[in-house]
TrEMBL record, chains A, B:
One of its GO terms (cellular component) is cytosol. Keywords: NAD, NADP, Oxidoreductase. This is OLC1v1039014C1. Gene3D superfamilies: NAD(P)-binding Rossmann-like Domain. The keyword tRNA processing does not apply.
Length: 332, 332
């Protein structure tokens, strides 16, 4: 009989955030079964002290979207860190330059969420144009038998053949475009540079795009260049029949201006999965029938959570076995 | 100076219904400017008496979707009738055989509404799968800052790659299919006969279609063959993860069974623009978060009303000038 060699201890993974997938107990268990998971949010000790006590040898970090800023202050306390796996597609909360300087690899959710986010963008758009949430409220309140539909609503707006401007034609923007082409919409876009891979009309100026469109869909990443990209001037160009959809990040729109435009009927409606200071919601928006709001849940589907879980575990496995990461952050 | 010949009196048009477009005063005016319009709903006289008194010479009738049944009882009182222009795409309220027997031509809305109805079908579907109306209520009620999204909802369901079964692959069904292909859904269908023009999988048995699908979308006409086509057995085959969308006519689904399946979680959700005894709504449906209801307003867009108005006027003009109708009802 050969001597039993004890298995090596499971590798250690620090989790900050914690990511949405951990709300599903099965997925948290999947991590617990495979790694020794450090969960500072379960400790009464302040975060930095926790890291200094427990994470000096930790080589891998999983960073949820709820962790506000991963920069040198935190990284200074993680001297052994070799990889950050971000559970979001947006990286505005990660100091990539600082990670690069320290030789820390970064993986992220990549395009895994793109179809879900695009689906919600289209859903919010149809909802705003066709007044679905208002219609649902009308029917469920029980007044359909006593009040005519026609008397209760202004007519809705057709989607087909509308001119749709996509701000940011990355993976999500392209999924939105593909979907809305099937509704016979005319697609054009604004992004940092013209894409040779598509035939949609390109606008280097977002205000000019808005002026030529009925609908604006915000799909770009949030960074210094896109913060408040949608100014008062852009909303003015979109005009009183225009509709804006945002499934990207709240701060891309100047929200104070947006609220005023909606209140004054200077644009026709909005569908917003994200807000500038979420979860805080301007009370004015809650009173408007032509505004549909959702709680930043564009990626909250069973299927995407399962896929994300597999991708995060796959990236960690790759890191610990010195293989290439599955979804590395590309050099900007 | 030539002698002035008085213009001929405008042709007379009887309107029954009255159609939704008449709720828009501009469109009613457009008819009034062009025709001498008989509007029995404005008269205190009972309908049949009104027809006997005023409509003995009337050659053209515009019939709104709200007129419950156009059959021999009404037609007997309109001896000069030559054309019926129906303002709906569905003809279940028109006795076509009786019209044919009397040599009365029939025109209808044809495919004019198909894109709008298909758009609403997709909107209701995304709404049910992604819980948009529930999310909107959550955010607008102001509890987002105090209650986590994850704790408040089960995860939503992804649309991409779902198997969609379309019941009735006419003009609306094909528009729905075209849109959902762009969401990478797998389309199959049930109809009276296999269509040689499409490559989607055909099911001669609607129960088998339901068994092989995640989503069922009802797009067929209501007639003797499709009344209660969606039985308890079909819903059972669709199963507890299945979702059903109905933008056709309420009576195509056995509504009593549907309500029970939804209440007991034996199907996952429903999006219904039509109900069996609308505007009366089963109160059980109003309490379910996984049910999105709209008040049979799939065609209520500014653009479709304008297009319908033009089509109805165009058909009347064609009739009065002995030209072929623009949108005749095809021989079944």
């Amino acid at each position: 009989m050969s001597e039993q060699v004890p298995p090596p201890p499971p590798p250690e993974v620090l989790v900050l955030g914690p990511p949405g997938i951990f709300r599903t107990k099965n997925y948290e268990k999947l991590f617990d079964d495979r790694f020794r998971v450090l969960k500072p949010w379960q400790s009464p000790v302040p975060l930095f002290q926790f890291l200094q006590t427990h994470a000096q040898n930790t080589r891998a970090l999983v960073c949820g979207g709820g962790f506000k800023h991963l920069g040198s202050e935190t990284l200074d306390r993680l001297p052994s860190l070799g990889v950050v796996v971000v559970t979001a597609a947006g990286l505005n909360h990660i100091d990539l330059q600082e990670c690069r300087r320290r030789g820390i690899a970064v993986a992220y959710a990549s395009t895994i969420f793109s179809p879900d986010v695009a689906d919600l963008a289209v859903g919010l758009l149809i909802d705003v144009l066709r007044r679905i949430t208002a219609g649902n409220r009308f029917v469920k309140s029980g007044i359909w038998p006593v009040k005519s539909v026609e008397g209760s609503y202004p007519l809705a707006t057709k989607l087909s053949h509308k001119r749709v401007g996509i701000v940011g034609l990355g993976s999500i923007g392209q999924e939105v475009a593909k979907r809305l082409e099937a509704f016979d919409c005319k697609i054009s876009y604004h992004s940092r540079s013209k894409k040779s891979s598509v035939s949609y009309q390109f606008y280097s100026d977002v205000r000019e795009l808005a002026a030529d469109c009925d609908i604006l869909i915000i799909c770009c990443a949030l960074n210094d260049q896109t913060n408040h990209l949608i100014t008062k001037e852009v909303l003015e160009a979109l005009g009183k029949h225009g509709v804006i959809i945002n499934i990207a990040r709240g701060a891309i729109i100047d929200q104070k201006e947006l609220v005023q435009f909606l209140q004054e009927g200077r644009i026709a409606g909005a569908g917003l999965d994200v807000l500038e200071n979420e979860p805080y919601v301007p009370p004015e928006l809650c009173e408007l029938n032509n505004v549909v709001l959702s709680p930043h849940f564009a990626v909250y589907t069973e299927e995407s959570f399962r896929d994300l879980c597999e991708l995060v575990v796959g990236n960690l496995d790759a890191f610990f076995s010195n293989q290439p990461l599955l979804s590395p952050v590309l050099k900007e």
